[in-house]
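[Q] Does anyone have a clean structure-token version of this?
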Amino acid sequence: MKNKVMIFKGQNSTEALEYEINSAIAKANKGGWKVVSAKTECVPFGERSDPRSCHEAWHLYFVTTIIFEKEV
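[A] Here you go.
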């Protein structure tokens, strides 16, 4: 078995990231690769504060890691 890892990164919106991921998966599937694991993490970055409320993240970064497997 062969393995391949793809990592996708985005900021504040998942719309463009979702399209990029779906396109990559479709292309990999045509080449005989199958998804065996996928994980998305969201990481807040920066800080803006409002004296009347709590601190909020200024940006959200999304990172998706996909592991593919292919029989040789």
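[Q] Thanks! Anything notable?
[A] The chain is about 20% helix and 45% strand.
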